């Protein structure tokens, strides 16, 4: 992992406890604008009418420009006569082939550049957390699974492939990544997150952005960090908010040059985020130093009037959001269209509007849209080439967590004649694809079907057949359904019953009806049971509120019936969240958490089951034992709520030993860094990879630091019998705490710990940090540097 120290303005040395940062190695984010860009934008704006300016801070859905499946110039002239800022989610609402999509983008841009007065191209944006959300594109595991790989280099490779696909059709902007820190499995969008830890989330977020965006906006895809800030969290504690929930957003802004931020649907101190001056101006642009553009989450501005009832009209809601610092309204004009009236009524000034327009045009300049742009790549397009499928396969293998194994895995294929593969998710693509994949969006949001062969989605049954061939008889039967009426409610402020009902119909119409008797009959004839249970895309995701977090419907009862047969049960769980296994954890032979593993799910799971792949993933979340809705946060030391499995936990088919711990006994707070190292050895018979984790706890009882915090990690490949040394270069500034409106590093004694999870830490040692307490204006260090030597 690369060392990432974050830029800050020079600080004057005004007291004994205020330190200059002249000794730091600093990465300086590039400014959003330059004098040359400002002059160019000012020149454009000098000729713009009010209507043309407002058009540049709005989006429109592409479906509004389509008639009989084709772009309508008449509709363009009616809907976007003055141009437009963004074309919203331009691919996930269509079933176009790649070449059709590219040509559609070119047609829209041609209209804008030839038929409007200003001739300004639009930004085309889409979702990208699991790959480019469009038909035929590679579908990676959901982010919660990717985080369990603890492999930022893999995240970069995956998002780089997404960038190439998006650029091939002329896209230039993504509403990704999602960097909310989530600490409850009950939150329906937890699957989109990187888990509960701010350090791991920040690391994966920076890696994702570097692959997607790169170093140059004109050749990359502009990334958007969302949702700013504290979405999905239950906290009113300022210290937690700044230290934990802001950290991932701040990291990608400062360390990965993100210039687009999306405020969340939530409220900060009772004020909706999208219309919150303190959040967007004082904190985001002030304390964090952000200088880019803010874009609303879909319909969040009109929610200020509707859902939140904090505005008396859509016009007032738009004025509130724009004044608070939200620049662009997505996905369609609904509140900003009233801005001309607001100007006439002195509700807002032109200066406020001009500021937002200037940011919108600046982004277009940085994306290269005003410099003879070329939209897409000519010729045939392949969104899922073999190289991408290999990336998806590797990502799935590294995201699947082995939670329990009594020795039955890997399967001893030579000793097995018959396998009973049962469960509603055993031969089903809907259990493999998370929210904001193309397949989920076209099904759930647009009520259409998708082609499971574009790209090819490999089910668990198909994967086992691919790997086992004729060696073993595989008997498949669903045995039970998910739930009826699928145990989900919907947010009435967002989607109606028609969309939800259509999505449900699309899913249920494409699976066989379960037959319990047939399932139990084939189980009796089999040597081992593989029960694939859990959720589908209908049961987890935005606006989908489940009644609990147990296995849905009658799945628990079905698993219990399988256990009663006396045959060994391997429980495989797919879905977007942790689902309870407490009823039968001690009775299952093995338990695997597969999340939503993407297009190569079946092949990856099969290879893990039969031992072609050694599982390496470790939990990015704590795994609950019950349905308590109290947040489960390892940083508090599991004092109140005990987990089924702790953060950082994951089993392997081999064993690892830690030894030779080394660290200094003391250091100075003004030191750049100090070194912590250990040896890790593969003591088992199978090659593997261990994720070495570094934590810190305060030794001083008076400290206000959390009980334990992750401060570094390294994924280490180890052949059987191989030993390597892992070295962490740690900065004292990583121990910053937010107190009284400032960042402080306190002298004292800290215990650093190394091991395999947050509770399995065999190597520990104290270090005394000496010197005067530091007070810093900004968080300026996020990550330790790690290295591996033979």
TrEMBL record:
Report the Pfam families cross-referenced here.
Answer: Fn3-like, Glyco_hydro_3, Glyco_hydro_3_C
Q: Specify the Fibronectin type III-like domain's residue ranges.
A: 690-758
Biological-process GO terms, alphabetical? glucan catabolic process
Q: What are the alphabetically sorted keywords of the record?
A: Hydrolase
- This protein's superkingdom? Bacteria
What InterPro entries does the record point to? Cellulose_Degrad_GH3 (IPR051915), Fn3-like (IPR026891), GH (IPR017853), Glyco_hydro_3_C (IPR002772), Glyco_hydro_3_C_sf (IPR036881), Glyco_hydro_3_N (IPR001764), Glyco_hydro_3_N_sf (IPR036962), Ig-like_fold (IPR013783)
Q: Does the keyword Calcium apply?
A: no
Q: Which GO terms describe its molecular function?
A: beta-glucosidase activity
Q: SMART domains in the record, alphabetically? A: Fn3_like (SM01217)
Keyword Hydrolase assigned to the entry: answer is yes
What is the recorded name of this protein? Beta-glucosidase
Organism whose genome encodes this protein: Mariniflexile fucanivorans
